[in-house]
Fold these 2 entries.
Entry 1:
Amino acid sequence: MVPQMSSTSHPDRFIPVSDGSYARYKSIMRLSRKEQDEVLGRERAILRDDTLGLIERESLWAAIHDVHRALKTLKGQIIEVPSYPSRYRDSVPFSGAGLPKAFFLNFGNDCGLEVDGDHERFIEGTYFVACTMGGKTGYRYVVVSDTPHDMDGKSVPLGVSLLEQTRVAIGFVELGHTLDESINRVTGDPLICSSVQHETVRGALNGGIDLVSRLSMNIDVPTNAASMRLVF
């Protein structure tokens, strides 16, 4: 069954913002070549001091599109995850047993997973998609932070949309290895890559995966996690 995405979840907001940004870009492309260069220069001005730059940010944007598309194509699930996982400490070998081919752990702000150096931003959730990379079978994952809920992409500069939407960290966990091992090798936005190293974020991810596996296999979840639920 295809999930009905929550109006507050990243999977629901990403495509409208992306579409709005593309519409803004197309309108700029209708200008003369000289005007295009001038306008795009202003639109992307915020990226001049960015440590990653335009090309790397666009690569991260494409990665989010990939996992978002997989979530829809594979009829993935969105799992609401309250505060319990942030207290979960165990990191066991990632078996993939009972896990959907694609799912999104939606932490929201209930887990209090603040981003390093930005107390106004928090780790919102994580996409997981089963895949094979370099001959190894496992799950690709993209940790995303929250974005302004009123951002529609069409009314803000392209550089701002790109920067806001790519506050992410990307990793791959091979089956038989722990998620904690892979977190040490994530790439992406420096602030998010730093934030996922914290014990609370690792705990949220490990606990969320444990929850998904238990729910998928109809195993009882801990009593202090009773408010967790699958959102279809």
Note: Confidence is low (pLDDT under 50) at residues 1-7, 223-232.
Entry 2:
Amino acid sequence: LLALAASIPLDGLVLSSYCADVFVRREETAASANEEVLQEALPAFWMVQSLLPQPPVALYIPYTTRCSGHLLENALRCADGLRRLGLYHTIAVFAPPKRETLPYWTPTKPNQQQADYLRLHHPVLLLANIARFEGADGEMVANFIAGGGVACFVGPRLARSNCFERASLIGAEKTDTVVTDHIHIATDMGYLHAGQRVALKNKVKFEALLHKRGVVLGRVDEKHTVAQAVRFGEGVVFATPLALWEENTTLSAFLTNLLLEAVFTAGREHILLEHPLPAETEVVCGGKNGKLVVCVVNETDKELPVVMRLPESLRKGAVVSILSVGGSVRKVVLDEKQAKAGVRFRVPPHWFALMLLEKKK
């Protein structure tokens, strides 16, 4: 129930709370026990729901997904990956123009209203493991970016389209296999800083971009990049061949920082949580009424320790208001040293932590 509270609904389906093994793990419990738990959780449900901010990131599902079970499965797998990375997101499905919404009508034109809406409410469009955009899909994505949106192309497959050249959009045409034990951070990215050398512990084999244009964010060598950013119209495109379900924890953390850089570029804020998070975790993070709302829902049977790094705007000092069911609020004031060190807290099993963060006055 609390996981549901921390999710953004879409046409009655809470896709962002999807869990790959939801149909496998089933337990029979007594009705009376369920009722008792429900009575306890409902006040928490409404408290979390009342404070939900707009997610900065929208995981995009192309029109062609409606005709392909594989693409829908990919979208759900990507949603799982985002939950494990601790990135607050919603799901955006291609919406055709009004006159093309009738059954059996294949959209031929993008919906400009959708592009405008996404730029305003969910300014980071995540395009994950999509091989190709057909027709109106590609045009909508190109319009979204050119009009000032931020897009993030994530692998392992990077989309092609007749509406744009991949080299001009993401700054690379092909990928190449590399084997390395480190990544150089070339430009500040998320919570990583230029000049850092990220060690991978052992040599790891993965795909890298063959750089053609744009700003290099992380590289293996002069030829191979792990992430880069390219200007497209008034918008920005971030690209990496890494997958949202990357198993290497260091590469996974690198990917999280890339996604956070996209969020920061769009003018939004987001915390960074220590990796890896359990699969049964929901994270909410976004601005609302001048404060940063953070909620972590722990769906596991064990207490969840959380290490949270604060965004730049809060590192000179912050006030953390910890909310509890019943209306009580406990305030913790962090000085600059404490704010830079981050916040540590624990979330009880099958419960949540909800807090509001603001600058120290």
Note: The chain has eight helices and 19 strands.
